[in-house]
Hints:
Blueprint: H1 2-18, H2 31-111
Amino acid sequence: MKKVLALLLVAMLGLTMLVGCTDEKKPGDNPAAEQQEENLDKEVQDAEQNKAQDAEQDKAQNAEQDKAQNAEQDKAQNAEQDKAQNAEQDKAQNAEQDKAQEQNEIQEQDKE
Length: 112
């Protein structure tokens, strides 16, 4: 009886090892796992591409913002410079007018 049970046990172990060994497939082959791995690889590649595209878009946006800020700063500086130049010119013109007015007053006093 023990020998029969032992033979049955050996037969069951042998059949268990052979299950799944058909045609070209090996016992460890799992097409679903391979498909999942390929899908993960594609997702990783897509994520990397998206990251690169986002970086390029951010770079372009930052460049545009920097350009706009520089333009505003240049405009403000030019306005300040123009204001200063105008103030200097006005001051010089006022000084000339005052001088001319004083000379006119002196000439009028000399006439009297």
